[in-house]
């Protein structure tokens, strides 16, 4: 995305009645944008004559377009901590025991018997309206009055089925404080209960999809992580020295290591050279000396590049190598 930053807009102004002064943060001097659903960004004068990047958290409304909203028509118009009420305003989600009409109105995500409840109680055969305990799921069949679900562990890896429920017989009702039945677990965090290699915290890498759901998300993180780095379109080049935006194609100093990607440093330099232009490999910018030059699917093999280094200042890249490597995932 292209950002506009206009320092001249922050020049001092004089009106002939008082001392000249620089515009403050209330004056825009460039692009406005949404950094995320919760955060809005803009370029504003800093009171010292420069156009600076200003980041502000949204209060209740989601950031859409280029600013935090001021009204709502749907739940998505509000932050995760709020819901859109009948007046078109984002209101904080309700606590347990407060009257509700929809689950999205409740901080717990459960609206049972017209009140926000600490669980989906009706599925457990309990009630959320016991006198003195409104908003708490109470089960008459349990000694302490509190019931819960236990989740089937079909593959025996010690983790319960993430999708376990009563309708598919992958969960059973039990009581809080009592151990789960044989073959069931307290927690539902196994994203593939048909393969014992798939479970939260898995650190091994795999070249074939799981036997159950055919996933490569072996550690149940919600995404697929790849073992080896990838830089589509990358090449072994040299980043410029600190405080420069260019990517040099020859060595700047003796024994300098070439890298496969300087794009992030150059991109940030284009946004705000004063703040971000600090070269590749500094301030957390990526500086890698090996990787694939294309996106490789899990289990596939391709040419893997290792960059060389300089022997003399101003020399050419030497010592680079290639090899066929397989991309494994989890």
Q: In words, what does this structure look like?
A:
- 4% of the residues lie in helices and 22% in strands.
- The protein is mainly beta.
- The strands form eight sheets. The chain has a three-stranded antiparallel beta sheet with strand order 1-2-3, with no helix packed on it.
- The longest helix is centred in the C-terminal third of the chain and has 9 residues, at 263-271.
Q: What key phrases describe this protein's structure?
A:
330 residues, single chain, mainly beta, flat, 22% strand
Distance between the termini: 31 Å
Q: Residue-averaged pLDDT, rounded?
A: 85
DSSP strand count: 19
Spatially, the strands of the biggest sheet line up as: 1-2-3
Gross morphology is flat
Rg, Å, rounded: 28 Å
Order of helices and strands: EEEEEEEEEEEEEEEEHHEEE
Oligomer: single chain
- Main sheet record: 3 strands, antiparallel
> Which segments are poorly predicted (pLDDT under 50) over 5 or more consecutive residues?
281-286
Q: What structural class do the secondary elements suggest?
A: mainly beta
> Number of helix segments?
2
The proportion of residues in beta strands is 15-25%
Topology:
Layout: E1 28-34, E2 39-45, E3 51-57, E4 63-64, E5 67-68, E6 82-84, E7 90-92, E8 111-112, E9 115-116, E10 147-152, E11 160-161, E12 171-175, E13 184-185, E14 188-190, E15 238-239, E16 247-248, H1 263-271, H2 273-276, E17 290-292, E18 301-306, E19 321-326
Parallel strand pairs: 11-14
Antiparallel strand pairs: 1-2, 2-3, 4-5, 6-7, 8-9, 10-12, 10-13, 15-16, 17-18, 18-19
């Amino acid at each position: 995305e292209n950002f506009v930053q206009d320092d001249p807009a922050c020049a001092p102004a004089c009106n002939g009645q008082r001392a000249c002064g620089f515009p403050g943060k209330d004056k825009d001097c460039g692009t406005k944008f949404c950094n995320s659903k919760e955060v809005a960004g803009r370029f504003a004068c800093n009171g010292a004559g420069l156009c600076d990047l200003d980041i502000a958290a949204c209060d209740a409304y989601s950031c859409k377009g280029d600013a935090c909203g001021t009204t709502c028509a749907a739940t998505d118009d509000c932050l995760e901590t709020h819901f859109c009420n009948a007046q078109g305003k984002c209101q904080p989600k309700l606590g347990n025991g407060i009257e509700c009409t929809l689950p999205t109105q409740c901080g717990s995500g459960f609206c049972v018997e017209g009140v926000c409840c600490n669980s989906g109680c009706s599925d457990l055969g309990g009630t959320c309206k016991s006198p003195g305990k409104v908003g708490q799921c109470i089960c008459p069949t349990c000694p302490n009055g509190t019931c819960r679900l236990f989740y089937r562990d079909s593959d025996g890896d010690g983790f319960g089925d993430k999708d376990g429920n009563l309708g598919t017989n992958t969960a059973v009702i039990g009581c809080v404080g009592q151990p789960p039945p044989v073959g069931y677990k307290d927690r539902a965090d196994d994203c593939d209960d048909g393969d014992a290699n798939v479970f939260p915290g898995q650190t091994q890498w795999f070249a074939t999809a799981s036997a159950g759901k055919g996933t490569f998300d072996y550690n149940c993180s919600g995404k697929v992580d790849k073992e080896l780095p990838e830089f589509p379109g990358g090449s072994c080049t040299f980043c410029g020295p600190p405080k420069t935006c260019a990517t040099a194609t020859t060595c700047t100093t003796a024994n300098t290591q070439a890298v496969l990607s300087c794009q992030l440093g150059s991109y940030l330099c284009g946004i705000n050279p004063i703040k971000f232009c600090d070269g590749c490999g500094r301030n957390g910018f990526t500086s890698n000396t090996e990787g694939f030059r294309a996106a490789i699917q899990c289990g596939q093999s391709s040419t893997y590049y290792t960059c060389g280094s300089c022997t003399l200042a101003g020399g050419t890249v030497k010592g680079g190598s290639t090899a066929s490597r397989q991309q494994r995932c989890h």
